[in-house]
Amino acid sequence: MKKRFPVKRQLQLIMRISILQIVLALSVVSTSIAFDVHAQEALTRKVSMQVQQKQVKYVLQQLGQQAGIRFVFSSRLIQSDRKVSLQVTDQPVASVLDKLLKPLGLSYEVSGENIVIQPSETGSSASSAPDQSRTEATADITVTGTVTDEKGEVLPGVSVVIKGTSKGSTTNIQGKFSMAVPTGSATLVFSFVGYLSQEVAVGNKTSINVSLKPDTKSLEEVVVVGYGEIKKSDLTGSVSSLKAEGNEDKPITSIDQLIQGRASGVQITQNSGAPGSGMTFLIRGASSVTGSNQPLIILDGYPIETDQRSLSPNTGTSFWEASTPPTNPLAAINPNDIESIEILKDASSTAIYGSRGANGVVLITTKRGKSKRDQFSYSFRTDISSLPKKIDVLRAADFIQYANEGARNSGRDSVYRAAAIPGLLANDYFWQDLIIQPSVSQDHQLSFTGGDDKTKYSVSGNYYSQEGIIKNSSFDRGSIRINLDRQVLPKLKLFGSFSGTISENRSTQQSNSNGDQSGSAITGALRFRPIASPFAAGTDDEPELSIEGNPLTLVTLGRNVARSTVVLANLKADYSLLKGLNFVINAGVNNTNAKRDNFQPFGTFAGRQNGYAYTGEASSFNFLVENTLSFNKTIARKHRINAVGGYTWQQWNNRTFGVQATQFVSEALQANNFQLASSSSIPVTTNQNWALQSVLGRFNYTFDSRYLFTLTGRADGASRLAEGNKWAFFPSIAGGWNVHNEPFMKGRTIFDELKVRASYGISGNQSIGVGSSVDRVGTTRTVVNGIILTALAPSGLGNPNLGWETTRQINVGLDVAILKSRLKLGFEAYSRNTSDLLINLTLPGSTGFTSYAANFGKVENKGIEFDADAVILDGELKWNASGNISFNRNKITNLGGIQLFGASYLSVGSIGLGQPANTALEGFPIGAFFGYQVNGVYQNADQVATGPKDPTNPTPGDIKYVDTNGDGTISVADRTIIGNPYPDYTFGITNDFRWKSLTLSIFFMGNMGQDVMNLNRHILDALTFTTGTNMRTEAWEGRWQGEGTSNYYPQARNVGNAFRGRLSNFYLEDGSFVRLKNISLAYNLPTNTVKWLRNAKVFVSATNLITWTNYKGYDPEVSANATSSLTPGVDFGTVPQYRTYSTGINLTF
Q: In the predicted model, what is the mean pLDDT of the chain?
């Protein structure tokens, strides 16, 4: 029978969400009313003024200063030379405005804390000069309409003028206009700063709606680069730019989800579907074997630590695993706060970050206030998620047959007697349904943005609550961000940023032996026998106990909670020394505190010793001080220089604490009182300090907008390295040619842009454990005279010669725009060579140490990238399409002649079987799959006799293994490279459609050519009943039952065999997939009748809607070891990804 998701629980969820929505809705309405009340109150203030023949703009400015009001109006609305006289004494502002504006044919409207000046109800502005050219009277018609931007949002303050006259109007706060237009051949001209003007012939139309397009040329598009900005036309490096707008209607919970599939050369793998789980983030492939492969993240100029490896205390203890901050540090950043993302990929763009730029750099810019655009926004989204696929395993009847058949094939008696079978069939549980639930999530976002010429602000708050599809798992995050910009003095600007995030991650027990993924709730649900009672934890009613135990105990009895607090604050001062010469000081602090409590009571496998508890804490504090001098100037029109130089200092302090205990006399206080435990470990604490100081510079020169040259360099000094190796220099050089600006290209209009780029440079990687260059000591226990004592003992062997990993990269690029820039194409080709790899060498046990860090070996990454953006339709129906495809080949070219177990390889990952699943071997990719090769099933005794000798003594029906070394015997020496975890290519395709107020976005992504090691099949397809575990239906139905019946799945057995103990390509599958990642439909609601509402949008969205793949597991996008990019493509007890349906609303006031 199946246990359904309780109706009571559904009602509780709905009530909880509904109540919260009502409270928030009331808050929004009351806040909006408060804004209007504030402005209305300002209109009652009394003022006194006396002016004679002053310009109208001057009078409004004086009135605004005296009353504390800001007026918003179009410059076209009021003629610059129009003068008025006004004399009032102690009169309300409303009365003064009536006296001032009515004679001018103007009126006003309250909008938030602003007062918008607009034409009076009659239509045209009386302040406009009469059209002296008109000598004949013609009848007028009233034309109304709405002006919006390219996204469908209304544009207030747009100038609407009759062509050839000065008669016109302007749009109000809702983007609407109404004006009298002569009948005949009149043409209206719509213009707004930053947008292309548009002309529309009136004819007999009485309603005209216009959508203005941004004027990209007038805006002079710039790209954020390290320590500054640069015109895109002057860029010589390889940079992918992403705008975050339009993603508010998608269930994006972390920044890496926003990037995935949308930038060429970037491979992001979602390791798990668990709430708050992380992603593996690679830019142009993996370049380090044991060091970090994660890119450097820069948030508003502040480097964010994302590599947990660099925080490792290097003490040899496992406690750190449970006390680290959340798996995904980027989950602490609210994606709704993001304005834009730049991904720096080649050496020319990353060399400015020196020793931290080898893996690429991601620059994240958050939203800041805009002058005279005060607005309050609220958005709400709710998500409903479910598992799109379940693994088909045996039900009760087939399971009993499997157990008995396996016993007979092994010469044993039946496991289940005929008389007992009817009673056993009464229990028929599909365990995946018992631990998996439909989940509900919600996201609330509030923001206030605006400012004036001197002060700009952006304040946002976010609450996100995600319920996991595994019962009793969840992720909750609350965040706040404040960005404040102030022009303090004519030459001094201050930019302040503060953000704070609190998160809590509740996860189910993922292990039954403190680190073994095979004991996760998922593997338990897949393998546990269907005839067992779900609530019989601790009993032994079956012949054999499952190695996992009852999976319900993992999700219902245990408690595993991680809490994290992240605070980031920085202040930047920008002082203009001379025109084009600025001195900038940037200082900030980043503090992270994390705590994990894990308690597994008696009844769980981990708590079998009267309970198990762990508590751990970790804190990381770092501060940054940067001083830079920038120069940006155009000389004699043709010489443009953009240069920066500076000095930076960043220092870290990390502390950790961890302790575990068993044998609790009472479980009432769980992990909150270790005094109730009779057995506990030695508490492990660490305290680490290190620093990085740097001198940097970049010089960019452009001649006549045709020839581009960039020279970059950075010298880094790291305290974590030994004397003599602390400092290194990382230079780069790049050039570019804007061919389309050459004189010989004039008149050849096919190319709107044709740019050729090339770069070469060096960057580094120093993400090694603190203290790796020095000998280390740790605690140990020893017995002296029968007494157990705690003492210090050597724990790690240092390498004083340890240095940097160095990456040299060559990049060539081509940028093309044609068809009036309706089609833009980009091409990149690169070669990255990393040398002096940071590798932990395994040492003989006789040394007393386990490993030793050293520099040797080389890795090569070569690849090409394509990008395309197209405006396919640009009429009433708009269709924009973009896509990218990336090819990368990763290969280890040198490992310094490592010899281990008779083969030249280095193990970098061991999963479950005690055998390396991923290795490093010269000539193959980092983390290539390593194991035996299979060649079908032995069909008869002759095949066994003529095959290679196998110490496991195979019989017909067993798997045949390949004697790869040809010595006639199957042994560990026959293990070889069996697969590549990295795809041959990745791609992403986005199509955006807009028709009137409707928008539709469709996003596909995929990985092709990758292999996945599906170790869940190690048990599910083994057809071995030794531990009473279940199996997949496909393997059961396709099993060998005699000669010729199967050459893939073996015979069912009831004894252990080599198949269960050998890691082979039998478990290796093609992990290629194409995924309809997201489809979103949005509608902009009409806001005519609600004056205080600027924009309202409702939307529906679906994520992970369809996945096309041949993979037998839940999902091919997976990595069981989520903390490392060196063990990719292993599926072993991982929480699967889910399908999500979302709906929500965005309101702007």
A: 83
